[in-house]
Prior knowledge:
With 144 residues, the protein is an alpha/beta fold. The chain has helices at residues 32-46, 60-65, 77-88, 123-140; strands spanning 14-17, 51-55, 71-73, 93-96, 103-106.
Amino acid sequence: MRAPPPWDTTGPRVAVAGLNPHAGEGGLFGREEIEIITPAIKAAQAEGINASGPWPGDTVFMMARQGEFDIVVAQYHDHGLIPVKYMGLEKGVNITLGLPFVRNSPDHGTAFDIAGTGKADAASLLTAMSYASKLVSAQSRGKA
C-alpha cells in the first residue's frame, strides 16, 4: 500500500467509509450517508481536502491496500480497526486526526495479559512513537 509519511499533509487521498451496508444504497439501508456523511465530505472538499466517498465499508480498506487511498476515515472504532489489525497488527498504529493535539496508539492495545512475561512485541509501540514524534514536529512547524 502506498502511504505518505504521516507528517505530509500536502494532499493525501482520503477515503470516507459509509456507515451502513453498501454505503446506504442510496438511502435503502439508512440515510446517514445522504444526510450527514456526504455533506461532511463536500465541506472537506471545499476546504481543499482530497476526500471522496462515502465508500462501502466492506471494500474501502481493500481499495486503500491496493494504493487507491492514503487514509481511510472510519465511522467508529471497530469499523476501522478490524481491517487494520488484520492487515498488520505488528506495526499497526491508530492515528486520530483532527484533534488539537497528537493522539495515536499501537493497534495491539496495552497487552496487560502478557506484560512482564517477555512475550510482547514492541514493534507497534515503536512505530506509534515514531509517528507521534513526526506529527509533533510537523505541528511545531505548522504543517499538520
